[in-house]
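subagent[fold] <- orchestrator: predict structure for attached chain, return tokens only, no commentary.
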Amino acid sequence: MNIQDLRSRIADLTARQQAAGEPVSYLERQEIEFEKWRLIHKYIHSHPFRTRGHLERSRQWREAANEIRDLGEIELLDWALLQVEVARNLERGIQDMRPRKNGPCHPLVLEYLANRKRKALAVLHFARAGEVGGLHSVNSAHHGHSADILRKQYPEEDDATVSHEDVPWFPRGQ
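subagent[fold] -> orchestrator:
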């Protein structure tokens, strides 16, 4: 598979994922997401780019962001632009709390993509398990159920004060 095929497949997956009104199940969305990150990782791995080492670190990350921009993946571009911003702040003497690695940008992009692909795979495994055993999520129905439990546990409280914030650390009377 050549690079143009990879680009078109990534663009197709991204467009398919972002299509409004197309009914796609949670599992299908996660399969698309994993495949998209797998293809992007494969593309960047097979298409190494160089950043000029004699430039400031922020300019090196700008060059890397320009290489990434054509893929059309907003999350990856946003991450690369964050690297530009952090490097620029470090050059100005503004420290960042997150540790940053030095070295060429391409291996760091590959590391980010490998971690992103790993996360997408974990979510895909969760979605597949949910197809069998059902997904347990915290939504408004869950919160409604918790409010009912709290009302039963603390019947003397009025409805306005029954919430998760009002749950005491210890049962009353201790």
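orchestrator: received. Logging for downstream: The chain has six helices and no strands. The two ends are 69 Å apart (CA to CA).
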